[in-house]
Specification:
Number of strands: 0
Order of helices and strands: HHHHHHHHHHHH
Structural class: mainly alpha
Mean pLDDT: 82
Number of helices: 12
Strand content: under 5%
Radius of gyration: 30 Å
Oligomer: single chain
Shape: globular
Largest sheet: none
Length: 329
């Protein structure tokens, strides 16, 4: 018998006075409210990680499936262009100048008599290669700088943050135009890759710094330190793996940005020379034909737009899967 069972009626009225009108409450007896099956926990189910849950979410997301198929297809075209066309994109015949499509040449010919379809196919190699390599370098450099700044703090954070602010104040496209003026005659793709990396790592550094600063204050870092782990080991063994979600989202979304940047630089004439097949260069060459023969401009523009859209949509889907708080739908 508890203390409430031993109370008389006068004591009960003190503890539980009559409710005022409109304040009545009904409490169901415990025996009438059993635990529902939906509220029970199945102890036999093994625990899952964030990555497993994210993959399950992505598999059921039509946006991710469509964008991933498009992205994989573009990458395959970039890696093996000879599987999709037997025409040489740099072999041109002036007799075919601006000729319409025919058998073996579904997109017709440009002003110089080059096969537009083969140039679109081989242009994927240039644009996608630059986008992927730039993304890898930006992730490595920006991730390392941001991780060191966020983990060590103090004067290390102050120094690296001020260097980041200096590069952040320089617009990437404007800085690339100025720097590439010195290498206009070079046909190497690396000049574009290094230039975009030089001005593009700052956003990745800021994202990584924020993620590391949040992760280093969690309990697993304290427990690892108590067990004798060194700071550097904690950073690369424990903190960085737990900070990968925003980094992956940023890298996936940025890839489309770098592909557009390469096309923009080639369009402006400061990127790759006309001897190198690229979507930006073909768009620049065909802009004068917009009113007379727009199909020459349409095909490389459509290929560029579809590729960029695929990577951006895939980045949005990955962001929704790895960060449920930022879901767009």
């Amino acid at each position: 018998m508890n203390e409430f069972d031993s109370m008389n009626e006068s004591q009960a009225e003190v503890f539980f006075p009559d409710p005022l009108p409109g304040q009545e409450r009904f409490v169901a007896p415990t025996e009438e409210t059993p635990l529902r099956a939906v509220d029970s926990v199945d102890d036999d189910v093994p625990p899952t990680s964030m990555w497993v849950d994210a993959w399950r979410t992505l598999r059921r997301n039509p946006l991710f499936i469509i964008s991933a198929i498009l992205a994989i297809f573009v990458i395959v075209v970039a890696l093996f262009p000879s599987l999709f066309t037997k025409q040489d994109p740099v072999v041109c015949n002036l007799n075919d100048s601006l000729e319409p499509s025919r058998a073996g040449h579904p997109f017709g010919f440009d002003l110089q008599g080059c096969d537009v379809y083969s140039r679109v196919v081989y242009g994927a190699r240039t644009s996608v290669s630059i986008g992927i390599m730039t993304t890898i370098l930006v992730t490595l450099i920006g991730g390392l700088v941001g991780a060191l700044a966020g983990f060590f703090g103090g004067w290390v954070d102050g120094l690296l943050s001020r260097i980041t602010d200096i590069f952040f104040a320089i617009p990437m496209l404007l800085g690339a135009i100025v720097l590439l003026q010195m290498f206009r005659t070079s046909t190497s793709l690396w000049k574009i890759i290094f230039t975009l990396t030089l001005f593009g790592w700052v956003n990745m550094a800021r994202i990584t710094r924020s993620a590391v600063m949040e992760a280093k204050n969690l309990e697993f870092n304290t427990a690892s330190t108590a067990l004798g782990s060194t700071p550097v080991r904690n950073l690369f063994r424990h903190i960085m793996p737990n900070s990968l979600a925003p980094i992956i989202v940023m890298a996936t979304t940025s890839m489309g940005t770098y592909i557009v940047s390469e096309a923009t630089l080639s369009f402006l004439g400061v990127g790759l020379p006309s001897s190198v097949v690229s979507w930006g260069g073909d768009i620049s060459t065909a802009q004068s034909l917009l009113t007379t023969n727009p199909s020459v401009l349409f095909y490389p523009s459509a290929a560029l737009a579809i590729t960029v859209l695929a990577f951006i949509m895939m980045g949005d889907a990955v962001k929704d899967a790895l960060d449920p708080k930022s879901r767009t739908a």
